Amino acid sequence: MTSSAFDIAILGAGPVGRVLALMLARVAPDPARIALLAGNAPAPAAAAAAPAADPRVLAMNHGSRVLLESLQAWPERSADIRNIHVSQRGRLGRTLIQNTDFGVPQLGSVVAYAGLYAKLDERVADSGVTVLSGPPARIDRQDGDGVRIRQGETELLCQVAVQSDGAGASDLRRDYGQHAVLTSAQATLPRRGWAWERFTAEGPLALLPHPQTPDAYSVVWCCAPERAAELAALDNAAFSQALSAAFGDRLGRLSSQAPRHVFPLALSARRAQVHGRVAAIGNAAQTLHPVAGQGLNLGLRDAARLAQTLGGWLAHPQGSPAAALTEFARARHVDRALTAGLTDLMPRVFATGLAPVEHACGLALLALDLASPLRAPLAQHLLQGFRA
Predict the structure, then answer these.
(1) CB atoms within 10 A of CB 187
(2) CA nearest 219: which of 110, 340, 91?
(3) For 319-366, what is each residue's pLDDT tens digit?
(4) Distances 140 to 18, 111, 135, 326 between C-alpha atoms, Å
(5) Strand partners, 148
């Protein structure tokens, strides 16, 4: 059994963990005393391949892009979102959110997971942070000396441990009874810079501009598990026909030749992000429904705030980190609650199957579209979240 000592150990080397490591490395007197433990989080069903071959795309809001650009970690290829069209199938009412309403070059961007991971990997390699690859790491215990972590035959002692990946959040849980079908599709009448969120009786259907294929869209189709299995089993022509029927004709005909991946949807969250000297961020703190694409963006805000509050303590890590961790938990409470509440409410309220509720939702979309003061808070939250 070998042993090492660090100021901070980050359990999870996904995008959120790597961003935290980069931000801490900028303020740490000795970045080598920050440990990034890779290999501890099992891959989700849609990403069983290695990061370089991961087929997923990620919707990054304006705030996340600014953060990644400040770390020189923005991938080379991305597709801008300048307009977001929100509608409800079979009902009146829609809302259009545009970048010109807020004076920003784009509301968000879509990037390939593989491209983002590669860029972050490159930046971490140059940061001086200690990267430890191996079997899954786990927190053994914490006491007055710090937190003890085991990774295979290695024991690590750190003053602060951060869980950033995995499905460790279980205090609050909701099974939506939906699976998401992920794929991509070509459109005969593409509209550059447009993203679409269409609520159907089955669940939300999102089309996002694809970062690597012009005139193509990344598809996130949420529906009942048996319907998802049926869609995944269709041939390309039948799936394309079903997709066009569900989305409508705003983009002409949709044609999909890409593989399809299916994974279950659930809300899971910790009530408290801090327990003693252990903090949880990203998927270790909360996993959200993919509606509005807020999961990773929320995790990056977790990382940014934690790096900010730990920065002063890192200058003198012999002292207690308790005050910094308490401040982090306090500062993140409202943003987490608002974002989780928004992404929890939308897929449920639009899929009740009750005509009065659906008509009310349509009127709400119409009101948001007609009254910019009503639309602004929602759009602002989608842009950058709530920042205390």
Answers:
(1) 19
(2) 110
(3) 999 999 999 999 999 999 888 887 887 776 655 554 544 435 444 444
(4) 22, 36, 15, 22
(5) 141, 157
